[in-house]
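FORM 12-B: Structure-to-Sequence Request
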């Protein structure tokens, strides 16, 4: 994906793309390592069960993936930080509007407490 297209997409879309790439790379590495274990066992004349090959593949692929996919993991972490910063900015803006920091809304009327319809007095007073 080009840098211009990357900037045009929102932080959530960039996060989804980075997460999909990183997940596919890690799963692909697992499959390759499991196939290698199974294939080498078969060539050596040893019947290696798929489950055993899978377990060893997880143990081998975990640290190997951390080394091989460092750039993808860093990009994913940056995308997560972007989404978090965007969410925090939106949250702060919403809290500011709720606290009236952006000026009064609805024609400048001051908010009043609701009155009890039976007595005309304010509730909770």
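FORM 12-B RESPONSE
SEQUENCE OUT:
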């Amino acid at each position: 994906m080009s840098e211009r297209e990357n900037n045009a997409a929102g932080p959530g879309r960039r996060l989804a793309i980075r997460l999909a790439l990183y997940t596919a790379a890690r799963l692909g590495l697992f499959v390759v390592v499991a196939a290698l274990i199974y294939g080498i066992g078969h060539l050596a004349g040893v019947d290696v069960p798929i489950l055993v090959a899978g377990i060893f593949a997880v143990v081998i692929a975990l640290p190997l993936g951390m080394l091989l996919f460092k750039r993808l993991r860093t990009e994913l972490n940056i995308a997560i930080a972007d989404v978090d910063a965007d969410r925090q900015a939106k949250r702060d803006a919403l809290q500011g509007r709720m606290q009236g920091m952006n000026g009064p809304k609805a024609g400048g009327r001051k908010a009043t407490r609701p009155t009890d319809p039976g007595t005309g007095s304010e509730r909770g007073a």
